[in-house]
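S.,

Sequence below, as promised.
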Amino acid sequence: MTEIFAGEGTVPAEWIDINGHMNVAYYVLAFDLCVDALWSRVGITDEYIDSRQMSTFAVESHITYQRELKVGDDYRIVAQLLAIDEKRVHQFQRMYHKHDGYLAATAEWLNLHVNLQTRRVCPWPEEILTAFVDAARNQHDTALPAEIMRKMRVNKPVFSLAGYCDQRERLNLASENPA
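The prediction came back faster than expected:
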């Protein structure tokens, strides 16, 4: 699988919570910093944002926690570009323990290109769209991640809000009987 190297780091002591492992907020921070690194590769730099008054907004994200990271653990993050259109990019990231190689967490993001003056979604400039497409095409033999587009649910709740089980059933039926 050819993934895009997005960044790496070391878990500092201030990222550790009362449970003795990296707090959920810092997984999101580490992933987000690597989104910025990926954006820089395709031309969405601080200079681009300042001069063009355009940036990206995350409109949806989903984090999965696979295995703990603790203070002093080194990690590396890789990215996959799943889909791109004229205004959006859907991407997926994996965080690995740098030395032991295990998957610690994943992040799935949907980002929109936004005009910062109007605060409205707008098309990518041609050079940015081309850079995204070029980067995506270089992901040779890359399979779709198993974690993408997952829904959260409790399979056999002992309590649920009205309609929760009905919603689960609709989701299950839809996945079994695609239109």
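Residues 151-179 form one domain.

Coffee later?
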